[in-house]
Every structure is written in C-alpha cells, then in structure tokens.
Amino acid sequence: MVEKVGFIGLGIMGRPMVKNLMDAGYELVLQNRSPEKAKELAEEGNATAAGSPREVAEACDIVITMLPDSQDVAAVVAGEDGILEGISEGELLVDMSTISPVVTEELSEKIRERGASMLDAPVSGGDVGAIEGALSIMVGGSEEDFERARPLFDVMGKAATHVGPTGAGQVVKACNQIVVALTIEAVSEALVLGSKGGVAPEKLVEALSGGLAGSAVMEAKKEKFFSHDFEPGFRIELHHKDLGIALAAGREYGVALPVTAIVDQMLEASMAKGRGDRDHSALLSLLEEGAQHEIGEGGRSFLPKEGTHGA
Predict the structure, then answer these.
(1) Taking the complete model, does pTM exceed 0.85, yes or no?
(2) Among 95, 234, 278, 298, which residue's Cβ finds the most Cβ atoms within 10 Å?
C-alpha cells in the first residue's frame, strides 16, 4: 500500500521537492505558513491543502518538513496545532530542514513518546538539485525508518545515505556546509587573485577544473561568479545560520573549527552590507572589495584613478 505523505514548508526547496513527489504519483497533503502557496500547489496535482501541521499529521502516514531553522521546526512539531497534536502511533516524521542536532534529538524524543518515529534527513544540492530531483540526502535515525522513507528519497534525490542514529544527519550536513562555504571562499580568492593578475576568470576555472582543485562547488557556482548574478539558490543568511550550527557543534564536541569561524565572519560582514538575501556565491563581492577589483573583462577597479595603491 502506498503511504499518504504530508509536506510542510513550500519555499525555494520545498516547492520543487513536492512537485517531484506529485509527478511520481504520491497523494500529498500540503501546509505552509502562507496558506495560498499550499492551495496554489495543490491545484496542480494530486494534493490537498491543510490548515495546520496538526491536520497534516492526522491525515498522513509520513510527514516531511522542509523549514528554514531550528525554531521553525520546533514550532511546527511541538507548537500549538503542531505535528505532535495530530501524530499517531506508527507514523514517521522526516525532517529535511537543516537544524541543530541537539534540537533534532529533543524533538525525536517527543515523537517517540507518541509511539511514532523520526528521521533527520537534511539535503545538499540547492534549488537546482531540488528541481532536478538530484539532492544528496544525509539521513539519521533507524535503518528500518530509513528503508521506509527510501522510495521518497529516491524521488527527491540522487543519493540518500544512512549515516547513523538520530542527529547524525544534521552532523553530516554541518560538515557539508563547512566544505561548501570554505570552497566558495577559496574559489573567490583564486578568482580575484587570478583576475587582478590578468587571467580571464573563465580560463582560470577551466584550468583549475582539470586538476585536483576542481570541485562540484566551483562547477555549480561558476556562472554566478562570472556574471555577478547573485539571485539566490541558497542565501548568505542561511549559510551563515548553518555555519553557526557547525560552530556550536564544534564547541559541543570539543573540535576547533578555525577557518570555519573566519568564513562565518565573512558571511556576517556580507550580511552587514545588505547581502544576506543574495546567493552564497556573493561572498566573492566581499573579496573583490578587499582587493579593490571586480573580476572579469568588464570588471571595474575600486581604486582611485591616480596611482594603484592609493595615497
């Protein structure tokens, strides 16, 4: 029997994930803080809109949440008219948000008290991965629950990995966000240095891609770097939040994360400049300002016209 699925959170990531599930034939119950989004999407396929997380839990066998932060997930699960008020024995909650592993463990315990179970299954791949059903999914929880949810993961992602017990998915996602943030920063440094040294950014990336420095991050973000079109796939403010989770985990587990802390502060500085709603690749702009140089053939110098080093 195909299980009925609920989905809460229809933002940049959640909406395309829902569309892929609808296209795969799943019957869905949708809920969003802005109810019109749920109603609009429900009209596009085999889905209905619910008025609250409680209603979703009452109507479904598996409930998926895809929300911005820890407090959002906590409110949807344990708040008034939340999932806990409607969940029944044997149901499964799959939280695909990126949140604190500590909060995950607290919510999982509350879910278990109701005779239900929970997976933490954060994702990587951004909006493009969500649209293409090519997300990488990192799953914490029991092996049995992982296998139960695997058909859904196979629709939304290209790779779902069971990484350990409850909370392990969030730990792995924190590690993922460290690597992505530090790679964006490193590529940005390389682009600014190369461009100011007279090398075209496109040629630099082509050369780096053929060797050990090549990376999925550079390939995914190169056009944003070249064009300076920083419409968000994944916003700076959200990546800053994620590095905060990583740094808190480092403090909890006694692990120094010195370079993560530096890039976290660079994201903070970008937010202070009003760029929090831009794609995380806009970290490039901060380095361009530091070097007084914008990359690319049409790039501008921030320096005074007289001299190259200022007064």
Answers:
(1) yes
(2) 95
Q: How far apart are CA 252 and CA 242, in angstroms?
A: 15
Tens of pLDDT, residues 73-111: 999 999 999 999 999 999 999 999 999 998 999 999 999
Nearest CA among 9, 152, 149, 49 for reference residue 92: 149
Distance CA 134, CA 251 (A): 32
The residue from 173, 221, 222, 241 that is catalytic is: 173
Task: Based on the residue annotation, tell me whether 196 is a catalytic residue of this protein.
Answer: no
* Paired strand residues for 235: 279
**Residue type, position 142, single letter:** S
pLDDT given at position 309: 42
Which value, in Å, is the radius of gyration of the alpha carbons in the chain?
21
Burial 239-257 (b: 16+ CB within 10 A, else e): bbbbbbbbbebbeeeeeeb
Query: Residue 127's pLDDT is what?
Result: 87
What the chain holds in terms of domains, given with CATH numbers, is: 5-165 (3.40.50.720), 171-291 (1.10.1040.10)
